[in-house]
Amino acid sequence: MEKFIFVTGGVVSSLGKGIAAASIGKLLEVRGLTTTIIKCDPYLNVDPGTMSPFQHGEVYVTDDGAEADLDLGHYERFTNAHISKDSNITTGKVYYNVITKERRGDYLGKTVQIIPHITNEIKMRIRKVSHDKDVDVTIVEIGGTVGDIESLPFLEAIRQMRWELGEHYALNIHVTLLPYIKSAGEQKTKPTQHSVGRLREIGLAPDILLCRTEKHITKEQRDKIALFCNVDREAVVEAADVKCIYEVPLSFKKEGLDDLILKKLNIKREDKDLSSWRDLVVKRLKHPQKEAKICVVGKYIALQDAYKSIYEALIHGGIANNAKAHIIRVDSENLEKGKVDKRLEGADGILIPGGFGDRGIEGKIKAVEYARENKIPYFGICLGMHVATIEFGRNVCSLKGVNSTEFDKQVKNPVIALLEEQKRVKNLGASMRLGAYPCKLAKKSLSFKAYKKENISERHRHRYEFNNHYKKPFEKKGMLFVGMNVRKGLVEVIELKNHPWFVACQFHPEFKSKPDRAHPLFREFIAAALVKSKK
Ligand code: GLN
After folding, report:
1. Helix/strand/coil (H, E, C) string of 175-193?
2. Span 393-444, pLDDT tens digits
3. What is the side-by-side strand order in the sheet with 433-441?
4. Nearest Cα to 523, choosing from 280, 290, 323, 277?
5. Structural domains in the chain, sorted by start
6. Which of ligand 1's atoms lies nearest the C-alpha of 382?
7. From the CA of 507, how far away is ligand 1's center (Å)?
8. pTM (predicted TM-score)
């Protein structure tokens, strides 16, 4: 029978529940268990696909084309868990289904209510994921903070599941905060007591408390938390701040969290250490031998989470090269006003990530021009490929009126245009070209050199695409079309002749990079940037 771990959060948001859930998954995998991780999001949107990064941070894309919460990215980076559309359960999806069933007449004669209909739908979805993926342990992270009105149905659903599953089959891990009050020189346990109190009001009790803290917890504090929160002493686990997120599994391991979980779930597995993770990831990350300065040019650079997977993939590329990717965030709108040379000065590599809308576009085009002319390694992703072709059309092919129809519907030379199938799209939710599609690489290309294979598969999220009408004239001027979706004739990767490393792709490689298995394009981009930095 499958076992479940429910991860809830208390006191404040942004405690790193997602990283905690991912790290727990990692620890269990190392002990030889198969896992999967689910994220429950209490908002009413069906998925985050139509939300601005200001609201939600990055939209993460899975192989099967889900536009999902960015925590799923942490799950995939830390573990080998198979993550798919069903791995993100939102209030929107749950209500949508229940209301559709109601209209169909499935509940004929009944009053449809939050309990049991909504809670049953939640339980059914959680159990289905665990069943379909056929894993030993399913970890379920409940978004939001205990005490929020929105998350109540999810918490009630897990309360019921716990009761149904019984001892040793379900576990609650509550992530909480011990704030440090400087003037008192003390760490406070009261907020944790209150948040456990809120859990108890709704019939839930934590089995393990993961205490986020700046300072180490003393024995007295541990005793106090255990007594007042009604948990075993050993179940008060310190989750002290660490320098990088990839250290979290190591810090949990040191606290014996894996042993504790196995004990509570009554699972016996041989002890294994995390030495390969420590050596391959954390040691290299903490002691880089070289450094490359990478400018990421985007319009959401002020936000920590908007380009989460991009930043992580750059870090992985650094790890693979025993180097540090020193990331400098450059606001593309500022490039429109000021001097490009000043802001991009000293860059060893320039990356333009995905994006939507015309704000800051001209600044991005200037950044491409700067990278192309100064032979600075350039990595363009999705919109980063679009701007690379626009720049090429304008400045190398000397065409007039070049743009994407995303930014100028009537443009004379639409080098980027709406995908044919997108012309029929009416609703904006989940209707882009999404998820994994194959791409064939030309053998004589930087991309082939990186992947070391011809046929690759990568994840997509776009509506616009290179206009093949411009392929021949662009080729004549030195653009190389090295990656194609053969079946549809879509351009997937471009490169430039006479440039040390200029690669731009229609897909999003950042979603498939892991700290111990850097994505080949990120690895090679950093390698090229390191060559530049030596010069
Ligand atoms: N806005 C562009 C499109 O829809 C690029 C999308 C992206 O960068 N993810 O095609």
Report:
1. EEECCEECCCCEECCHHHH
2. 999 999 999 999 999 999 999 999 999 999 999 989 989 999 999 999 999 9
3. 323-331, 290-298, 349-352, 378-381, 502-505, 490-496, 479-485, 433-441, 455-462
4. 323
5. 3-279 (3.40.50.300), 290-534 (3.40.50.880)
6. 8
7. 9
8. 0.96
